[in-house]
Design brief:
single chain; 196 residues; globular; mainly alpha
């Protein structure tokens, strides 16, 4: 299944286009994917080994270092997955306290020196405009936000013809969601719906 997923991504115009640009989006994609992968290893291991949660938090930290707080979408996917499985108690096994400190330490390792050197201008451009205003569609970004259907259209146009398989896959998941055959599809479905 992993090889097929990789092949589908390589045949998707939007993904290939973004890999050729000098943007941080692909690094963010890598770190979110790694965070979710390490979460899955921790989940399968039932949280016994501390390294998997710490690797998850490290990947989230590197994603935040790469593109800002949007990397926490990976954590949102994890929480949504656990909520759908009614396993929110598993969050304790993710070592949230130490993990959050690790995430923050990695994220601030570059950010604080950059803030010290760049001062108010860095704060205005990077923190306010590129992070806070972009996420909240406020400040200099007021009126520049796109409606939800824009993102769906963007997804469809960038991932043709493969996106045409999403509705039948969602329907198959919905039909089998209560039996064992639907379980492996839960995370990809939660991931897609959370990010969209």
């Amino acid at each position: 299944m992993a090889w097929l997923s990789g092949l589908i991504l390589l045949c998707s115009s939007q993904f290939v286009h973004l890999t050729a640009l000098a943007r941080t989006d692909m690094m963010l994609c890598l770190f979110i994917t790694l965070a979710i992968y390490f979460f899955l290893l921790a989940h399968q291991d039932e949280g016994r080994k501390a390294r998997y949660p710490f690797l998850m938090w490290s990947a989230l930290g590197l994603g935040t270092l790469t593109k800002g707080p949007v990397a926490l979408l990976g954590l949102l996917v994890v929480l949504a997955f656990l909520a759908c499985r009614r396993e929110l108690g598993f969050v304790k096994r993710l070592r949230v306290g130490w993990g959050a400190l690790l995430w923050l330490g990695i994220a601030l390792a570059w950010f604080l020196p950059a803030l010290a050197v760049g001062g108010r201008e860095f704060y205005r451009i990077v923190v306010l405009n590129e992070m806070a205003h972009r996420v909240l569609a406020s400040g200099s970004r007021v009126g520049k936000g796109k409606p939800v259907y824009y993102l769906v259209g963007h997804f469809v146009s960038g991932f043709l013809p493969w996106c045409l398989l999403v509705p039948p896959a969602l329907a198959a998941f919905w039909r089998s969601r209560r039996d064992a055959s639907g379980r492996p599809m839960l995370l990809p479905v939660v991931w897609l719906l959370t990010v969209l």
